[in-house]
Amino acid sequence: MELSHLLELEVFQGSQVAAGRRGIHREVTWVNMMEILDSLEQLQPGELLISTGYGLTEESPLVVDLIRRLDEKKLAGIAIQPGYYIQKIPRKILDQADELDFSVIHLKPKITFGKVTKAILDFLTKHTIHGMEFSGSFPSRTLDNWRSGILEEFFDDLLNGNFHSYHEAMARSGLTGLEIFSSYKVAVVDCSRYLHGKKENPDSLLGKIRDLIVSHPFAPRNLHSRIRGNQVVLMYLSDYSEEDEDSFFKNISSTLEGGIHKNLFCVGVGKPTKSWQEFKESYYQAIIALEIGRSTLSDLRVVRYEDLGLYRLLCQIKNKKVLRDYAEESVLPLFEYDAKHTGELCKTLRIFLERGSQQETADILVIHRQTLIYRLKKISEILRKDLSDPRIRLELYVGLLIMDIADMAHLD
Prior knowledge:
The structure is a single chain. By secondary structure, the chain is of the alpha/beta class. The chain has 17 helices and ten strands. A hairpin with a 2-residue loop joins strand 7 (about 225-230) and strand 8. The chain is elongated. The chain starts with a helix and ends in an 8-residue tail after the last helix. Residues about 130-145 have low confidence and may be disordered.
């Protein structure tokens, strides 16, 4: 498709060819977007490059041979939108473009890159497909597959934090229809226990789980999904209530197990995003919540990062030796005693520290209060700690939490 044909699209009304007019007959095969034009290795022949021109001032060394380098890459042209970072396209670029017959398009202000790229890619894809001889249903399916691939690539870049600027993220979001400037949640559904022992291909099972989630009548609004390993990663608008969230994931589990709840799923949920930069952090938080949930919970549960309390602080400590030393100096002797004597002193200590009442602790453990008093005295002797001291109780509780995440933090 010639560049001249693309320039007739409605989205280009108000834009103009600023230089290199004789190059508008070059063939365009794809569109690419770059904010900073200092690394051009990824560009491919036939691409129309779109940029805000960041750093392209008259004095910048970037402008000296930019058009020559793009021409050597056999690009179809470049569309620049002044107004964000530069007020006008540098004269050196325009002169090079005229010399090399390389088209430079001055994009009109206030139009989003997302609208431009979506219009171009839709036009290119439809034109390419319609020029082929396929059955009547194929073009629509092919276009859907193409859009799905673009969305999944964008999804991955969001989770990996691969965006360098607001304008790049804005352009890509417009192309995919993903409203990343709204508040989203990132959730990670771990399917490892469900897949274990199944004869069916794991990839096929994961696909079924994903399809069940996204097609469910009570699924959250604007839900997007991606399979990573044995996990299904989800993004959805954060206005989905926690009650609906819990009910939804339990329903998914019940459906897969034929109505029988077998505790095969754990879901981690990150904090709601406030901007496009926070998707990576929310994904990381969801992974942390998932790992802690798997380490500490036996029942299916939606584990939210916001509800992790002290676990959140402990997981941020990079020096794992600090955690290991703390556990060894606080509660590890009690774990060793239980392992040797098949005891329940660790469980007793945890419930006592969480409840703060001897009678309530005894009731939960279904033991006589005198038995509890004996156990607490034994715990004090083993740890050489005074359980009547509030500071000591806090230190021991932190030690228990560290032991909860010992496997996850690779403390052993």
